[in-house]
Each structure stands twice: as C-alpha cells, then as structure tokens.
Amino acid sequence: MFGGRRFSDLRAGLPGISAKVLTERLEGMERAKIVQRRQLPPPISAQVYELTAWGYKSEDAIKELGRWAATSPDHDPTLPLSPASLMLSFRTMFDGSRAGGLDIAGAIRLGHDRFFVEVKDGKLRAERGEIEAPDFVFEAPAASPIAAAVYGKVSFEELAVAGLIFTGNRDAALAYIDCFHLPEKIY
Fold it and tell me: Cβ atoms within 10 A of the Cβ of 180, count?
C-alpha cells in the first residue's frame, strides 16, 4: 500500500516467513494480478514488487478486516508490526471526527523506513517518504513503541527505554495521537 518493495525489504517486514514461502505467495499474487514485478532504472537497477491498480483497490477491504480484527477479545495490540502495517493501521483507525480543525504534519522514522502523516480538513494522509519541517517526529527501531504511544497512550518518556525518540511540538503530537482509538472488544 506504500509503493514497490524489494524482495529483501518484504521479507524483513515479515519476520518468520521463509524465502520459499514468500516467493510462493508473491508468485500466486502475480498470477492473480494483485502484484506485479518492475525493474527500477539505473543507478538502482533493482527489481521491486508493487501492487497493481486492482491490488490497490483492496485497501478498503483490508482496513475493514483490520477494524473487525481489533474488536476480537483475543486481539493483542502489543504484537510486533511492520512499519507498513503500522502506517496502514493509522489509515484504518483514524477518527476524522476527533481531528477537528487540526492542520499538523509529522514524520515517522522506523529503522530505515521513512513515512509522513498529515491531518488536515478532518482527513489523514499517511505515505512513504520524507516531509519538510514536520510539527513532530517519532523515531524508533521498530513500530511497537510508536504503536504503544498512539494506541496505548503510553507517554513518550516511558517509551524511551523501548527506543522511541520524540522531537518537535508535543501538543501537535498529542493532538495526532488523540485521533486514534482502538474499537471496543466484542465479547
């Protein structure tokens, strides 16, 4: 959902999956025309897997499944997330009614992955890439500390031991965090 990725990047974002299983899954999604392979031009000259136009149409269904899964009594929000999964969870769990008149932008840096978020006009934009002059920056070696700040409402100071580095406007960051709440569990 955030652009093409090399095989090694996909595998790194899916801990525990073997190269063989990932290859089989990607081949199946290629046959189904969900993903396609593309060769990047020099100087990179790497092959990437990316969603097709039809593959991108799955985002609404994936988000709805995510909302549904979060209502499970067994949902564990402390399980590890890939950087892309965290960002997709932001797209999924964003509550525009809580955004009010916000006009803020933030940078999310997870290891080598760079994302930006913008809240404006009651809408969220969460994309891969850099943003100039963000109001706040969340940086961590993995997605878990940022997820704990956003969904668990754990303080930045408490999450520093887990590697979270927060810089920028605290009020803007807290306003961003307030736009996200996990749904009630269904028992």
Answer: 19
Entry pTM:
0.89
State the Cα–Cα distance between residues 184 and 72, nearest whole angstrom: 9
* Token output for 39: 């060769």
pLDDT digits (tens, 9 = 90+) for 65-95: 999 999 999 988 878 888 999 999 999 999 9
CA distance 60 to 36: 20
Q: Which residues contact 21 (CB under 8 A, 6 or more apart)?
A: none
CA distance 170 to 178: 12
Contact assessment for residue 168 and residue 106, using Cβ atoms and an 8 Å cutoff:
yes
d(CA 85, CA 170): 24
Contact 99, 122 (CB under 8 A): yes
